[in-house]
Amino acid sequence: MIEMQNVYKTYPNGVKAINGISIKINQGEFAYIVGPSGAGKSTFIKMMYREEKPSSGNIIVNGANVAKIKDSKVPIFRRHIGVVFQDFKLLPKLTVYENIAFALEVIEQSPEEIKKRVLEVLELVKLKGKMDSFPDELSGGEQQRVSIARSIVNSPKVVIADEPTGNLDPETSWEIMDIFEEINKRGTTILMATHNREIVNAIRKRVIAIENGNVVRDEVRGEYGYEG
């Protein structure tokens, strides 16, 4: 489902962020990406949804070679994966329902299908009662639930999450992780970059540790492995 083949990334200023990583994540896996600040995690994640391009090597996500997608085709590629950010990235002038529905409107789904899917994902993230609210009327945890719902409304095979609990309090973070676990149980592959030591150690999944742009540890049911 996700494969990196001898991937390097060097920025124009000479900083080497990724140094020859080769790794495979299979359909239905749940993998954490961990490591100290500046290790290359953000670059690793951003290359998965083509926010960044590798300097060399191949990245296969959901059957597409991300490294070779034309810029004009990137939006089409992104329609088939889900991406969840630390800062939610909701559209402030749209309601919860409209924020989620927008992801289906751009691919010209029928109104009937849009309503069906939006209500299904709102049920999953337990926000049916907030569908007419605007983002600024929601708590941080509720906004992240909307972000997750939007990321899965297209029924993607892969969800990429970049520090999804980074702006949330501990209790809310656990609630968000419950949702990710449920999504994974339904067959969706999840790749999550996180600094949350407690969550990684409690919800044991595959752990891929990156330091200085290299994979230094890859464990099936790993621990966070860093202090703090």
Give your account of this protein's structure.
This protein has 228 residues and is α/β, with parallel strands linked by helices. The protein has a domain of 69 residues. The chain starts with a strand and ends in a 9-residue tail after the last strand.
Secondary-structure map:
Layout: E1 2-10, E2 16-25, E3 30-34, H1 41-48, E4 56-61, E5 64-65, H2 74-78, E6 82-84, H3 96-105, H4 111-124, H5 140-152, E7 158-162, H6 170-185, E8 189-193, H7 197-202, E9 206-211, E10 214-219
Parallel strand pairs: 3-8, 3-9, 6-7, 7-8
Antiparallel strand pairs: 1-2, 1-4, 4-5, 9-10
Order of strands, widest sheet: 6-7-8-3-9-10
Percent strand equals 25-35%
SSE string: EEEHEEHEHHHEHEHEE
Mean pLDDT: 93
Distance between the termini: 31 Å
Total number of beta strands: 10
Count, helices: 7
Uncertain stretches: none
Gyration radius from CA atoms, angstroms:
17 Å
The backbone outline, from C-alpha atoms, is globular
Q: Structural class of the secondary elements?
A: alpha/beta
Q: Outline the biggest β-sheet.
A: 6 strands, mixed
Helix content: 25-40%
Domain ABC transporter: 2-227
Subcellular location: Cell membrane
Family: Belongs to the ABC transporter superfamily.
Main location: membrane
